[in-house]
Amino acid sequence: MMKKMLAHSAMSWLLTLVLMLCLALAGATVLTGCGEPGPAEEAGQEVDDLMEDVKDEVEDVIED
């Protein structure tokens, strides 16, 4: 009976340790992922800016 309790306690402790490690790694990944924008993000921003310019031009033409 005592061996079973110790084994359960050790497994519970190990599971808690693994979950804490996973949460720490996930947190580190989120924090380091917020750095400088990469080339794909910059290209996407350029496309967004161009689409906004086109939309403004179309609105100007429609208003005139």
Radius of gyration, CA atoms, in whole angstroms: 27 Å
What distance lies between the first and last C-alpha atoms, to the nearest angstrom? 87 Å
Catalogue the unreliable spans. none
Structural class: mainly alpha
Q: Helical residue percent?
A: over 70%
Q: H/E series, N to C?
A: HH
Structure description:
This protein is mostly helical. It has two domains: 1-33; 35-64. It has helices at 2-32, 39-63. It is rod-shaped. The chain starts with a helix and ends with a helix.
Keywords:
2 helices, 0% strand, mainly alpha, 2 domains, 64 residues
Topology overview:
Elements: H1 2-32, H2 39-63
Give a brief outline of the structure:
Helix content is 88%, strand content 0%.
